Amino acid sequence: MAETGVMTVPNRAAAAALMIGAFAIIIGYIDNYVRVIAGEIGLWQFQLLRSLMMMPMLTVLVLLLRLRLWPVAPLAVLARSLVHATGMLLYFGALAFLPVAQVAAGLFSAPFFVLLIQRVVYGQPISQVSLAAVALGFGGILLVLGPGAAGSIGLASLLPIAGGAFYAMGNIATRAWCPRESVATLTAGYMAALGVMGLIGMIVLALLAPEAAAGAEGFLTRAAAWPSPEVWFWVAVQAAGSLIGVGLLVRGYQLTQASQASVFEYSVLPAAALWGWLLWGQVPSMAAVLGMALIISAGVLIALRWR
Length: 307
What we know:
307 residues
């Protein structure tokens, strides 16, 4: 998942839909291989390696395109980066245990948390349409995650929803704290925060030396390990794919109104489900399909309300 820019060109909704659709296809594909990475290395090492690989790529883009990297408000960027990175840690942590479509559904609870935070923190009223959308969306999330998933993996089923809450706070922070920052600045801050969190997690695990389960079950508690060539390859694909995906998403938001672009972003759900079926034979249940439809409908309602 990624942050967005501001609209700087005339509305071109069809082109934006293509850009964001391409983002959804890329992210849906590469995130399906986090389960391969989780089989050998831990979440913290994965994030550190991914950030170390992404930073040189971003540096090349900044130099070639002459982008502004230094923040206007460093403390605001730092705070926003920590909040957003926490949400992404929860998201990637859940990918080791849940299909990508289910994790993405939990992350897309973010618009509903945005409404609640704006009401509680900023005192903005919530309309009846927005309340209905919140109820619809949470109903969809419960259907996608489902009592079966919760019963089989326990608290892991709550990680995507917690990630959605932090992602919502990151979105609010982007608008409220960092309105003058460039996309390159926010992306670099986010990647650096994930890398530092990964390094801290690895140090803590090295000191505590907990016993990690074999395979994906040990993803959250596994200390540093030397990856196989296959895992090195998929971490590099994650780094490059994420950077390309962010660029496509940002460009999509620049081509049309944010309310329209946010609706297109929900294409991540069917894209993730499609890749899960093609790559791993994961067929969503009817309840999960209905839940995704409810989440998308709720997102459309909220986007239209914002518009």
